[in-house]
Design goal:
Blueprint (H helix, E strand, L loop, with lengths): L25 E7 L1 E7 L5 E8 L3 E4 L3 E6 L4 E6 L25
Antiparallel strand pairs: 1-4, 1-6, 2-3, 2-5
Length: 104
Amino acid sequence: MSHPKNSEIKAHVHNIIERNVSSTQEVLIIKKGKLRLDLYSQEKEYIESVIISAGDVVILPYGGHGLKCLEDVEMIEVKQGPYLGENDKERFASVTEEKVIINE
């Protein structure tokens, strides 16, 4: 969002509304370091990889993903809940190094 000087967002609360969540979405905020983000389709097919680093923000609304730290990394991961731990995800084989396609 952007707002001009002296604009105001009026004080508010959010109404209690029952919501049904069918899949987990994530936001990654990279504070330090560099990593490779591997992106997959919902059917677990490799699509491509991107290099992300400090200051980057990534939204992962659907599909699969994997991360390989290229440097020491500090990041914030935000997910909507409730989060069910390992019951919330299905792990599958990552792309092999020789098949990585980096989109820069």
